[in-house]
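Shipment paperwork, digital attachment
Item: protein structure file
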Amino acid sequence: MQAKEFFGRWVALSKAEQVVVEEGMTLIKKDALKVQKNLIICNRCKQKSTKQRALLPNQQYYCPACILLGRLTTQHVLYTIKEPNYFFNISNPLTWKGKLTQNQLSCSKKIVQVQQNNQNYLLWAVTGAGKTEILFAGLADAFKKNKRVCIASPRVDVCNELYPRLKEAFKNITIILLHGYQTEKYKYTQLVICTTHQLLRFRDAFDMLIVDEVDAFPFKDDVMLLNAVNSARKPISSLIMLTATPTRSLMRKVRRKKLAVGYLPARYHGYELPVPRIIIKTDWEKKLKKGKICNSLKKTINKWINNEEPFLIFVSRIDSLNDVYLAISKFVGDRCKGETVFSADKKRIEKVQKMRNGVFQYLVTTTILERGVTFPSLNVLVLGADDELFTSASLIQIAGRVGRSAQKPDGNVVFLCSQKNRNIVNAKKQIIALNLKKERMTE
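Attachment content:
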């Protein structure tokens, strides 16, 4: 293996493998698992497991906590080389020629300052505010100084959307995309875009670490992933967190002045967030199981089809996908094509891309597409919005998929429910309140 593959990264190899690197490179090694009296401790993810749970048939132990990254056992050793920031100096790394609004520019300058001062920072910006573009100046400044940067998100679809945009904006910067569906072999790059689980593979690697959608599952409240963030960044580094729906714990830190915050209540194009229309139908689920949909939805879906506008239909549970898809496909007939998609769907990335390309006009989806994806002229329908799995934050994020394009900044957001509940009411209230803040800001 080349030395570059070890830079700022844990590489797991069997104890039997010989590791040789170039002269002058110091290879640091550590046993993958530390075995104690009753526990094993993983040196990759820092999690503890009981010996009983971690025992293998060959009487060795493995770590069940980070098994998704490949099985790590007591027969493995972790190797790393201290991050050397081995990059070519580029005087003008930003190739993006767009312009920021005045509000975006103010946030952008703050990101540059935070990055230069190695601070922790929360950017609270409404969905569609243009958070990615706001980062560009801070990223460019970091690249000029040969810093290594990571943008991580809990969601695969967010990473897939960020990758081509960052690649276009920084054409001369080496970049890699890392997540469980990727087949590209790892290579050493100055910019890493990855899921938050992939951070477990890094050690003291990044001078600037950005966590997008910091409130999203599975990152939210996950101790292992929080530890991964701290392990992946250098001791002296900046941490920038992005969200449209901050958690209570984040806001508690803000109130206690333990975390600096910036706020952007306006979308980049200046138009308001679409306010959800709430439809109450107590028998919608019974009809759906018979392959039928209510008249009010028929009118709405017909309008979207006639206008050739794409739409997402959200359901709370995977086992509802097929019933909903059968009812919708029966109603639309051959007028348009659609599919179902969920987190473990092997064709998930392919289906989302077909939606982007216009092959599909609609997707019936779980909350995996509630954030981080952008389709022009999109409308959304939430079936069973009163289900407990649809929190206020997720409903706001779903509504935020609509109206993101300056060419079509409006669209329909429909919440179908048996009855209104607190989450639905709070989501609508918060969207209206954000629109009012935006109006006051521009007065």
